[in-house]
Design a protein that fits this description.
Blueprint lengths: L9 H16 L3 H8 L3 H8 L7 H11 L6
Helix pairs in contact: 2-3, 2-4
Length: 71
Amino acid sequence: MSPTASEGAPLDVIATSLRRERARTGLSLTEVAKRAGIAKSTLSQLESGAGNPSVETIWALCVALDVPFSR
């Protein structure tokens, strides 16, 4: 099953969500990466739509950004 045009590709949706939620919190790349326990370069790649995050990485980012996993 492929995503609809409104949903976008999964990595693009994740990238957009990460940028939006980080902007909402006003936190820097460095601070979010530190809180999530990942490298700053990894977070930067994910925000640009590169990389393939594990479920654990997405979970850690949700905790760091204080957003529900489903969002």
